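Figure caption, in words: inputs first, then the predicted bound structure.
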Amino acid sequence: MKTNEEIAARLGTSVVALASLCLVLAAIIVLMLNRRYTTDLEIAVNDMQTPSASPPVNKSAGPSISYTPGPNGIDGQKLFRQNCASCHDIGSKKLVGPGLAGVTGRVPSEKWLHEWIRNNQKLINEGEPYAVKIKKENGAAMTIFEFLSDEDIQAIIDYISLSY
Ligand code: HEC
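Bound structure (heme C present):
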């Protein structure tokens, strides 16, 4: 016959043993979860740091032009972006003014193009037929660019001509 104390002592030991087992199990689970989490995080971070083999190409950005300034170092692309891009697309899309794709082929001459870009109002006022015609067709007024040098204008034309 076991005494009550004996039974209680046995029960006590079992409860302690069970509790320790639970603790160990819990610790193992926590460690495993933690490890998994870290691994996923590491993979994500690695993905962000590894550069992809080829950089993504933006196909919706219109005609892609690889432009380098000529020997005199005047950057026609930069000048175009600063002075013309607000009104002109280098492709065929109409903004405020017509898209400039193919423009060197439709204007009367290279000389006309220089004069137009420098001061379009002067040509219109002189009644130059092509100037009057596009003015009628579009209606909006193009800015006057007296401050651009011949070289600046040539660099812009060279840049535009690359798009077609
Ligand atoms: C404020 C808007 C505006 C800016 C800025 C502007 N243009 Fe224009 N451009 C026009 C408009 C509008 C026309 C059409 C003619 C008209 O309505 O006067 C035109 C016409 C032209 C044409 C003739 C197009 C054709 O189809 O024959 C050329 C070339 C041109 N611009 C070049 C330029 C260049 C180069 C620059 C920058 C140095 C420039 N434009 C800046 C508005 C602008």
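Residues 83-84, 86-88, 96-98, 100, 103, 106-107, 113, 116-117, 120, 134-135, 138-143, 145, 156 surround heme C (CB under 6 Å).
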